[in-house]
Amino acid sequence: MANINPFRSRRLAYRAVEDTPEDDDFIHSIQSDPLSYATSNSTLLRPQTKRDTLNGYKKHLMEDALLAVIILLPTQNVHDQPGTAGPPQEIWTSIGIIALKKDEPGHGHHRKSSISIDIAKPYQNHGYGSEAIEWVVDWGFRKAGLHRIAVEAFSYNPGATRLYERLGFQFEGRQREAIWYDGDWHDLLTFGMLDREWKEQQQKKSKKGSSK
To answer: Would you identify the CATH topology of the domain 13-210?
Structure first.
């Protein structure tokens, strides 16, 4: 997935999480969506205040992540001033957050990480999550030199498990009844991809593309 701009993919762009009111509001809007929260977070489901978001999730993104970015989607092209000629200027809308966890101190030589991702509800089921995961995996192996990237899913979210397997992650393990949600016990599923598996996947895509 080599790209002239390393922070762009086919339809999306990626930028750093900023200490701005706009980013604070966007991150809180995702954290305060109970369905999105429940499918990506194992902490106790309860209404999230903005302070909860800033002192918890955002602090984690800023301090504990190897990489944490806002996922952006172009909404329209406009000129700097209406009615004037010139090259169009892209306007971007924040649609999600994706991060790679920083390993614990003293564990960096293992060269491993795990993915967390949240897509705002209006932009789900459009393939943006798949594209962002492929981009962050590419960044992790190609730029950060990782050896292994993992991602977890809850057994009550079968759509996530199908997505990860379709993207080439291998099912690695099941923690039985590790998650209490909505009055019942559910399993915590772990998927992983190694750098050599990713390279093989890229080679297959390259051969498939050259044969057309």
So the answer is: Aminopeptidase (3.40.630)
